Amino acid sequence: MQSRHDRDKYLLLNKDNINPDNEGDFKAETPERNENYDIPYDYGSIMHYHAWGFAKDTSKPTMVPKDEKYIRTLGSRVLSFYDKLLMNTHYGCLGKCDKNIKCANGGFPNPKNCSECICPGGYGGELCDKRPKGCGKVVRATSTSPRKLNVFVGELREGEVSRECTYWIEAPAESKVELKLVSLSNWGIVGGCHIGGVEIKTQEDQKATGYRSDLFVQLYHSVSLSACFRFCTKSDIGMTLLSSSNRVPVMAYNHESVFEATIEYKVVKPR
Prior knowledge:
By secondary structure, the protein is mainly β. It is built from one helix and 14 strands. It has one helix at 81-90, and strands at 11-13, 63-65, 108-110, 113-118, 138-140, 147-153, 163-170, 176-184, 196-201, 211-213, 228-231, 240-242, 247-254, 259-268. The longest helix is centred in the N-terminal third of the chain and has 10 residues, at 81-90.
C-alpha cells in the first residue's frame, strides 16, 4: 500500500530512518504499474506497513500519515473493506451479479452469492442495512444529557481467532450524536490496535478504515472530530467525537483477551 503511485499525497517518509536493506520496499510504483481503480488510499489496508516498519531506530517512525491521527491505523492485520473491494474489482468479480440487488452503506454484491452483499465494518444483513448478527445491541440517543454505553467482548472460544461485538447508537432523524470515551481496557501502545480495541464510526464515508489513535490523541482531546476512530490505550480516554449522521456503529473486538469500554453519548439536535 505504501508503494502506491499516489502515496506521497498521504504519507511522509523518514528516509533517513529506513533500514538500507529495505529501501526498495518503500519505492513508489508508477501509474503504469499500479492500477488502483479509483479506490481511495487506505491507511487500514492489510498491505500497509506499520509506522515503524523497517526502522533503524525503532523509537522513530519510518513513515507518518499527512493526517497524523492515522498513525496507529497503519499496520492492520485484517482485510479492510477497501482491500476486499480492490481484489474483487481487479479480478472482475463485480460483474458477476446483475444490477437488481441494491447494497446499502457502500456495500457491493457478493460474487459467490449475488442475493447478498459484502458489507463495510459495522453493517450486516443481506443488504448491509442491519446491525451484524451476534453480540451487541441498538441504543437510542434521545437525551441531551450524557448516557453510558458499556461495550464488552468476552474471551475467545476454542478455535476462535477473533471476536467482535457491534453496537449501534441511533438518534432521531436530522440529529447527530456526540460521544466521549470514558474508560477502556489497556494493552499499551499497539500499532494498528490489532490486539483489541473499539472502533467508533462517525465519518461520512462508512467504507473507510478509521483512526486508531494513541500517540497523537492528546492533541485532539478538546476537539470534536467527524471521523472513524479505533482506540486501544488509556491515553485515548477523554476523546470527544461528533457523528456526521444520526447513526454511529461502535465495534468492540479482541484477538487475545477480554476487552471492555465505557462510552458516553448524547443527542445533538439540529439548529
